[in-house]
Amino acid sequence: MSKKITKRSDDFSRWYNDIITHADLAENSGVRGCMVIKPYGFAIWEQMKSVLDKMFKDTGHVNAYFPLFIPKSFFTKEAKHVDGFAKECAVVTHYRLKNNDTGEIVVDEDAKLEEELIVRPTSETIIWDTYKRWIKSYRDLPLLINQWANVVRWEMRTRLFLRTSEFLWQEGHTAHSTSEEAVEETKKILDIYINFIQKTLAVPVIFGTKSDNERFAGAEETYCVEALMQDGKALQAGTSHFLGQNFAKAFDVKYASKEGKLEYVWASSWGVSTRLMGALIMTHSDDLGLVLPPILAPIQVVLIPIYHSQDEFKEITLKLKEISDVLKSKNIRVIEDFKDTRKPGWKFSEYELKGVPIRIAMGPKDVKNDSVEIFRRDTLSKQNVKIVDIAQHIEDTLDSIQKKLFEKAKKFNKENTHYADNFEDFKEKINLGGFVYAHWDGTSDTENTIKKITKATIRTIPLNEKSEKGICVYSGKPSTRRVVFAKSY
RNA sequence: CGGGGUAUAGCGUAGUCCGGUUAUCGCGCCACGUUUGGGACGUGGAGGUCGCAGGUUCGAAUCCUGCUACCCCGACCA
């Protein structure tokens, strides 16, 4: 064992970092707080992108691209929005370098920008400045646009994928003629996120709205998707915001209605980021390495020959090649690892570390039996399967892995969801980790106090929970519904 | 941004307190041979501005100053 992964039980953060480095997903770069996403990690992200992109397009959205830089004056137009992001903005102030007296390269102070440019932490402002020119009539609505981009938020403390100063995401920005339609869009996207994260990432989620404290800067309402990681901490996996007319008013975006009246448009914005990579890792992976749901796995099946002589090598690789072709014809992502520079044992470990869902090994014994050995990454179980049955078996197994991973995570989620009705109990449950459903009086004060004492925040005010009379777990004031508390990333 | 810690070969490290020949060990890498059903073994070999910049000293990985990056804990956040 040359690549040793810290056990989850020993040190969860270290385990997380070990998975990322040893599975070749990403690494820290020479730039503070910014990561390099390595080819294997990026391939997973690309897989996410392609599934999600299709979901957006199927619901009438189109992609576009807006600038990286936002003039400060645009940025400051929506008051709450600036408040929310001001503390973490990278600002471009100059546009040229020069050699100084000692030959050093320095910023040319003469090349100062008249107006500073903000490196986008999100694109609402530049986009609404644009929409102002695009939207004139009710006939221009709805406007349903998404962009895949990078954004920069100058974070104090960064962690690979979970929080980096620069990250990749998609941000959707839509404009509508009525409030109802904008809210409907916001919820439609929430559904897409729930669906995507549960079906594709196999990560179970809860969803709902955010409290005032946690709401997006400039939004009327923020809907969110929250997942639970193996260490019992919650991770916000996606957000969808109903922006009301806030940005329309800030950027004076009006349309002429059918009745010929000028009205401000209604808006939504929504996004998920490379943070989903973190959710994926921390939901499924184990002490042997990464575990990937088949839909996202860049490599779904790896073929490994086991042989002694060159004759055996030829015979076995020929048969494996045939299997490979059959699987490829079924659109299964398969690779043949016939390199003779590594021993089978080494390859086994390597692909386990990288989370490849299925490994097919074939050795002399298998040749005799017209079978192969099939190994499942999720259950670590081995099975001999006749070659004639291989295609069906692999297809079924990939499906089964995808389902099992979700079920397993769902089970964990359930086992770590608690209810608390008094504060002592609440503190205890929060310390156990996981989600805690409790009554809350609806005030920021109470939320802040609870946060101070327990470090837990309201992750979401669930949408589909039945209302239930009770008293706030902290203040004792009356409450009509439970909200979800957890410590979070 | 505050508090603590770390930085020595591609990776992990010893040496640092108490300055003194040629900087330790393991993994990995290269060559050859034997191996190949769970990260093989033997022999030989290559690889270092000791994070960067100054300073103290006859002499610095080791002492001093500054800087940078990373890790852990807080505040902030997707």
Structural summary, described in words:
By secondary structure, the chain is α+β, with helices and mostly antiparallel strands. It folds into three domains: 12-54 and 128-284, Bira Bifunctional Protein, Domain 2 (BirA Bifunctional Protein, domain 2); 301-398, 3-Layer(aba) Sandwich (Rossmann fold), CATH 3.40.50; 417-486, Translation Initiation Factor IF3 (2-Layer Sandwich). It is 35% helix and 28% strand. It has 14 helices and 27 strands. An eleven-stranded mixed sheet has the order 3-9-10-16-13-12-11-24-27-23-22, sandwiched between helices. Strand 14 and strand 15 form a beta hairpin. The longest helix is centred in the last third of the chain and has 26 residues, at 390-415. The radius of gyration is 26 Å and the shape is globular. The two termini are 31 Å apart. The chain binds one RNA strand of 78 nucleotides through residues 1-4, 13-14, 17, 21, 28, 30, 32, 84-85, 87-88, 122, 151, 153, 155-157, 162-163, 167, 169, 216, 235-239, 271-275, 306-308, 340, 342-350, 352, 361, 363-366, 373, 489.
